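To: structure desk
From: M.T.
Subject: fold request, one chain
Message: Could you run this one when you get a chance? Sequence is below, nothing fancy, just the single chain.
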Amino acid sequence: MKTSVQYVTDQAGKKTGVLLKLADYEQLIEDLRDLATIAARRDEPTIPHKKFLEELRKDGMLQD
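Reply: Done. Structure tokens follow.
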């Protein structure tokens, strides 16, 4: 993702804020939510990919 960033500065030139395109901001928020979900599920048990595909097929959610 290439973002277009503009900085807001005070009279001394110190950066105090940032302006982003709305689409860039929304993408950052989505990425943050994804990372939070990953962190929350870190300790959940995992299953092999092959078994996962088998379960999807069995449930009719995936076709060959």
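Reply (cont.): The mean pLDDT is 94. Let me know if you need anything else for the meeting.
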